[in-house]
Amino acid sequence: MTNLIDPNAIPNTPVEGWQPDPEHPRRRPPWIKVRAPASQEYKEVYSLMRDQKLNTVCEEAQCPNIAECWGRRTATFLMGGDTCTRSCGFCDIKTGRPNPIDWAEPLRVAESVRALGLKHVVITSVNRDERADGGAPLFAMVIKRIRKIHSGCSIEVLIPDFKGNEDNLKTVMDAQPEILNHNVETVPRLFKKVQPQDKYEWAMKTLGNAKKLDPLVLTKSGIMVGLGETFEEVVQVMQDLAGQGVDILTIGQYLQPSKKHLAVERFYLPEEFDAFQKIGLELGFKWVESGPLVRSSYRAEQQVRELSRLNHFRLRDVVEVDAS
Length: 324
Ligand code: SF4
Prior knowledge:
Blueprint: H1 40-51, E1 55-56, H2 57-60, H3 66-71, E2 76-79, E3 83-84, E4 94-95, H4 105-116, E5 120-125, H5 136-149, E6 154-158, H6 166-173, E7 179-181, H7 191-194, H8 200-213, E8 218-225, H9 231-243, E9 248-253, H10 270-283, E10 287-290, H11 300-309
Helix pairs in contact: 4-5, 5-6, 6-8, 9-10
The chain binds iron/sulfur cluster.
């Protein structure tokens, strides 16, 4: 691919300043400030999740934005149980053999979306590689249920790569989510270390095929930085994603959840996140969310609002809803 990037846009990699300390993963630079969860809204979301026996990425991944997001009554629902068949080095979700799928879960998620009065929802799942369908029907079911009982809410699904399986992807795309998200997470050189059961090709194929199966969907992907990649490698991944027609990009700082997870190799400076955003917009992404605390679902509702204002987004006009 042609290199479209102005080399002056790439800041020098800083080596001084804030060095990560693997022995003290909670020690973070001053620009990474995490609010303590205390608001009434936070407590309400917490109670709802417990009452409905639902899992969220916000909790499972120890997301640093939980006070802010739950304080705004938004959350990312995690379906398919709380146990993942893959064992990524950055992720705090339990690995192992999951329980059988709970097919009533999509309805409980939909009811919670309605109870929270959400205008936009993000739904993801653990990997269910033990199943031929990869758990894809859960996504189709939850989309249909939400449309049936809480119409007007836009739906973003953050899906696994289904090992590049097109039939499973089609199951999701046929339900017509407004946004199809799959995070590439890191640069190809680090896949073996960071997410050993994933393949870069599967990530790219998932995003490219999603657009082919449904040209009206907005596609989205995310990258974590600080795992040992170079700035230039990140830019190359951005170019690859742009080449797949991806519309929305998120870039955030990796934070080590505990000592047993991969160590942070470096903390990027806020200026570097600004540089990623500038480069992303030059590459043609419709929206780039880039910052130390940016996560895949961070400010997702505001993104949709801004994209609507720019005429890049509109709610699906789905006439027939079969919520079976
Ligand atoms: S950024 Fe996403 S995962 Fe983190 S608290 Fe917000 S909604 Fe949850």
